[in-house]
């Protein structure tokens, strides 16, 4: 099993560590879903987490902003330990954007209102400034013409791009993507992945749980392979896809890269 760098060694590639998980453990009842997870994510790094269903990928992603609690271990974001609850957690969550599998937009608010809600309520950004920034972000993800529509009037791909704009509106230090394309029709997947590739190129720190191997090859600095609640191995995409070191990774890749 490949040990990740953890807190002592810093993030790979000489990057300053931004998100650090140390000895993180998580159970669902008797199921040990995260087992001694050590992972350091550098500032500006794109880490893609892959592995078979039930390997703990989404739980790992959700633990980073405490949507899932952990039994033991520590998680720090920009040197600050993840608080248990309360205002401290809300403040830290504002620094951690999250894009879900199901877009989770507010159905009764317009697209622009969805994007400006967080900045005005949490960041206390003046409404006019939030609207201007919101329109800039909607243009950035290619849906500015939909600003006054409601989520149900948009395609799934458009809604997911709005969800990315909403995350960006908070000026997060890191964005977590939990299988952001798995609920989309195939023809809509690329329009979301293209936005994510652009974010990666612009230096956004990203943790992406996905089955999209093309994205991992194109945009990831590092691929983390999980199985049975453990990080089995991690390396740059070229190394991982051409020369995985573990039997489990080789078996996984043989099943998904045959088509």
UniProtKB/TrEMBL annotation:
Recorded topology in the membrane: Peripheral membrane protein
PROSITE patterns: ABC_TRANSPORTER_1 (PS00211), ABC_TRANSPORTER_2 (PS50893)
Gene Ontology molecular function: ATP binding; ATP hydrolysis activity; ATPase-coupled polar amino acid-transporter activity
Keywords from the named record: Amino-acid transport, ATP-binding, Cell membrane, Hydrolase, Membrane, Nucleotide-binding, Transport
InterPro entries in the cross-refs: AAA+_ATPase, ABC_ATPase_HisP-typ, ABC_transporter-like_ATP-bd, ABC_transporter-like_CS, MetN_ABC_transporter-like, P-loop_NTPase
Pfam families linked to this entry: ABC_tran (PF00005)
GO cellular component: plasma membrane
Catalytic activity: a polar amino acid(out) + ATP + H2O = a polar amino acid(in) + ADP + phosphate + H(+)
Record localization: Cell membrane
EC numbers: 7.4.2.1
Keyword Nucleotide-binding (UniProt): yes
Keyword Membrane set for record: yes
Domain called ABC transporter: residue spans: 19-253
Family, similarity comment: Belongs to the ABC transporter superfamily.
Protein name in the entry: ABC-type polar-amino-acid transporter
Species of origin: Microlunatus kandeliicorticis
């Amino acid at each position: 099993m490949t040990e990740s760098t953890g807190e002592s060694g810093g993030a790979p590639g000489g990057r300053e560590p931004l998100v650090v998980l140390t000895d993180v453990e998580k159970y669902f009842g008797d199921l040990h879903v995260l087992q001694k997870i050590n992972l350091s994510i550098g500032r500006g790094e794109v880490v893609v987490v892959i592995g078979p269903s039930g390997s703990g990928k989404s739980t790992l992603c959700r633990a980073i902003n405490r949507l899932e609690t952990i039994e033991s271990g520590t998680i720090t974001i920009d040197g600050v330990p993840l608080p248990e609850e309360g205002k401290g957690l809300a403040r830290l969550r504002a620094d951690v954007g999250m894009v879900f599998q199901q877009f989770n937009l507010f159905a009764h608010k317009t697209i622009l209102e969805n994007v400006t809600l967080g900045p005005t309520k949490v960041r206390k950004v003046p409404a006019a400034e939030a609207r201007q920034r919101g329109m800039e972000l909607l243009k950035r993800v290619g849906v500015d013409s939909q600003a006054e529509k409601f989520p149900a009037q948009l395609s799934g791909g458009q809604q997911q791009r709005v969800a990315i704009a909403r995350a960006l509106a908070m000026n997060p230090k890191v964005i977590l993507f939990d299988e952001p394309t798995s609920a989309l029709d195939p023809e809509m997947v690329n329009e979301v992945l293209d936005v994510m590739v652009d974010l990666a190129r612009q230096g956004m720190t990203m943790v992406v749980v996905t089955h999209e191997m093309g994205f991992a090859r194109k945009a990831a600095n590092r691929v983390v392979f999980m199985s049975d609640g453990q990080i089995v191995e991690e390396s740059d995409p070229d190394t991982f896809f051409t020369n995985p070191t573990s039997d489990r990774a080789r078996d996984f890749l043989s099943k998904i890269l045959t088509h």
